[in-house]
Each structure stands twice: as structure tokens, then as C-alpha cells.
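Our working data are protein records whose layout never changes between entries. An example says more than a description, so a record of this kind follows.
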Amino acid sequence: MADLELSCGLPPGPDFADLVVLAEELGYARAWIYDSAPLWEDPFVHLALAAERTALIGLGTAVLIPDQRSVMTMASGIATIARISSGRFRACFGTGFTARLAVGQRPMTLNDLSDYVTALRQLLAGGTAIVDGKAARMLHASGLAESRPIKVPIWVSVFGPRGAALAGDVADGIVGPPHPTLPAAMIVSGTVLDSGEEQGSNRVRAAIGPWRVIDWHNAYAQGGAEAVDAMPGGRAWRETIEALAPKGERHLWTFEGHVTHLPERDRQLLEYIDLKTMVGDAARISRQLSRLADMGFHEIVYTPTGPDVARELRAFASANQERLAV
């Protein structure tokens, strides 16, 4: 069985730094922060706060959205966190699936993602990149930023053959399926059951619900009424959305609370969610983590939600310790 790092993923918000401190105490390898301007606060601010309060835990982004910041702004932000965290930072980028759909736009193309990451690498290396048709370079004077090259691992979150090929060309790792040449991380949600707790308990549904209802969000955003109506409870959920807003504004409601909170209309979907994957006692979670390691993943990014995220972090870390003790 391959070595497997257990990390956690958390939204940028008031509790982020406190939870990262706890994650460090619990032995998580890395804390990844989300990036979606319509949904959460600025990730770089919260990464800086967490970096100042921790010493060992790695920090990462899952995932930065290129079109939310110019490539020079992104380079400067990465340089800042790299300095404050003393080399514990990893920057991961994606096409902006949720962040762009939430404002009525389609995700970036893989070609645009590749061009952006390539230019970013050139800037961090101290080179000259062509940005919007003009030469650009990091001009930070000595003492105002780390000297170049700024060595920060660059990962991408991509899927499919074209995504795998892009990752092999521009990235140091991938959030996605196992890759033939790069380390791969997988994002998972779940919860460890209390002693005697039923798998379908109200606590379980509340703890995992925000991540498990996103299939309905994505189906409606990508495939419209036909796609979401084909899912259990999808038609009633869609009709609730469509009663809230005119056609041109429904995307603003589709992603409300995405992966963090459950609006009442999303609560109606809880009876249909997956209660098997990463839901069980510590022994079951331990076995599922071991299977992911055997599949070739190098890192698991656990994304706790629900009313008691600290409890979820503690319980999942304990299950991982049981795996390591075998």
C-alpha cells in the first residue's frame, strides 16, 4: 500500500485559521482553502492569518480560479503567502467550474488554464511573461518580496485525457484521478459515526449534506431542467429555484450555500444522498482510505461540513490513525 497523506479542505471564513490550528494539532498534512469570490471571503487573507498561527502544517488552494485575479496579482499573492508560510504553500488551479457558473459564466477552457499557469510560472521564476500582449515581470525590490525564483509547487485540478496531458506539461501535481507521472490528490466528504449511531441519522445527513447535494446544483447549471429532473427529487427542487427568480438570475440561487450550508430546498434532497461513501465507523473509514491509497492517490483532502466541523476533523483524524496503526 502506498503512503497516503491526510489533509483537509476548508472555506475561507471567520473560523478558517482556528480550524487550521486544530488540524495542525491533529496531524493533518495540509489545509487546503477554497476560492470562489461569489461564495466566500478572500483566500489569501485567510491563508496569511493561518500561516502566522501555525508552524508545520502545509497550506494549499483547492482551487484558485485564474480569471478572478490577473496573473500578476496572482503571482504577487502567491509570493506573499510563500514568504509568510516559510515554504509551506502549494498553489493549485482549476477552470473555475462553480465560481464561474455561480455568476452565469462557463468554466475556462483547458487551453486558457494552461496559458495562465505557464505565464504564472514564468513570473515566479523571475522571467518575463507576455500578459495581454505586453511584457510583464515581477519588479518587487529587494526586501519587498522573496527574491526570484519563488519556488512554489503548482498543481492543477483537471480530469479526462486532455486534463491529464495538460497537468503533465505544466504542473507538479494533480487534484483528480491518479496520474502516470504526477502525485495525485482526491477530495472526499464524509463523517465518522458515533458509537451506535445509524448511518442515516439526522446528524450524518447534516454533516455530509452540503457536499452530497452538489450533483443537483451541477446538473441544473450544466444540463438545465431535463438533467436535474432526471434525478431523485430534482424536479421539485428545480421548481423551487424557478419560483424564486426569473430565468436570468436562477444561477444566483442554484449555488447558494454550495458545499458549506443547506438552504431549506437543499434539505429536501437529503433523503436521496449517498450515505455509503466515507460514512461509517472508524474501522470502515480506515479501510476506505487504504483502498484509495492502493488506487494510487498520494493525498486525500477531507472536506468536513455540518454544524460541528471541529468534531468532524477530530473523528476523521482518529480514523486515519487507526489505518496507520494496522
About this structure: The chain has two domains: 5-177, 214-272. The chain has a mean pLDDT of 96. The chain has 13 helices and twelve strands. The domain at 5-177 is CATH 3.20.20.30 (TIM Barrel).
